[in-house]
Amino acid sequence: MLARDKVCAVVAALDAVSMRKQLARALQATRTIELRLDWLSDDAEIAKFLKYLSTRSTKATLIATCRRREAGGRYAGTIAQQLVHLAEAIRAGCEWYDFEIETLRKCPRELVDVLLGDGKQLASAHFFRGLPKSLPRVAVELTARRPDAIKIAAHCDSLAQARRLLDFGRSRRHVVAIPMGDVALPARFLALRAKRAFAYAPVENATAPGQISLDAMNRVYRAHRFDARTRVYGVVGNPIGHSLSPTMQNAGFAARRMNAVYLPFLVRELRDFLESIEPLGMAGFSVTLPHKERILDELEGCDPLAQKIGAVNTVIVRGGGRLYGYNTDYVGVLQSLERRMPLGGCRVLIIGAGGAARAVAFALTEAGSAVCVWARRAARAKSLARAVGGEAVARPRLRREFFDAIVNATPVGMYPHGGESPLDARELNCRLVFDTIYRPRKTRLLQLAERRGIDTVSGVEMFLAQGTAQWEIWTGERAPVAAMRRSVEAALGREETKAHSSPKKRTRR
Question: In terms of pTM, does the model score above 0.85?
Fold first, then answer.
């Protein structure tokens, strides 16, 4: 068996000292480790690291990789030098070595047997531009030299492609199938439910598209515990990399010791995701931009309030793959604002007219507020205002009129564009500003409001309220709110600390 643990840590650094430090961290988390010798800056650094490795005794399965540039790696030396390094790695304690197809085609088998015969060979093929037309043909070429196992890694542009690659890997013994790319990330995670599967996770430096760090694999997703009974949830959107929903929801599962996982799905084509729900064994999912309104057409049933709002952010998968939708943004809005001000009789300006704005508008209307709407697309603003019995306002009026509260329900100002604001300071004529964006916690809009002495509410409050409501809908249990809040605030705190300590270009306005 190639892997002792489901998660294979990837150790990749420019110098031997950093490789040693990463290896020490990897050994604390897993017993399967890939050593990317090709990342080391030169032959001398490779020699230094392997000399150190030879003095250690580990119980981990070590895989030596010295991938040449031709095969998508970093090693610039000759094939002969590559073979020497791999041979030294085997003598230093590596049980396996990764041998790419580009080198296999050029290297005499007898030479490989003489130099590397004491190690187990993982013959690999990497396709960074897309899935190959014939996976069986690739497998035939890789197995021609009778390796101990083969690996096929390919960039997948859809979940359908990722499933095809993983299905091929499961259909044969001693085949490691690795879907690459952000779209394929959830499928790569879920492959770990099989007994023989494993996934690569870098200690620090990603060596392939779409990899998740070793820390996140174990701490956030608890991937090392996946099995056939793991319940699967996720968040569907485009973009999705900014979302802290996986951090929050997985913290809830961990606190309640549930065998469940929540994954990020980068979904460009909604149909591709919908056709993957049953094969991936999903039990429910969150919906974010731009699919909150589109998903309505795909539901078997829908909560009346969500139907009225015209947007869904929460879906349960029932028997036979039937989908039922809810909207918990509504709950998030009310919980966030009711603690700060009485909503009955208030005049509130909503910025935006999309799915999030509709939830805000209906929530405030039901609470007795008078709703005004401004959006860049005037027709959509008028449509939303008409739906809730409110008023659409033109932007020039914003500097002359006063509102009890202003709510930003657009993505303007969202990470990584935190320097942007949907309104100027002179347009903030109100007692309170609420930004539904939670990343960053203090958006440019909230900063402008604070400078004018206006009370503010961060989107973190709404994010937590709607997220814990989702968790309870899916599980039927009370959410561990404190644990979920701690996870979100810790993640945001780490991100802000990193941003403040790193040099960055300032956004001019």
Answer: yes
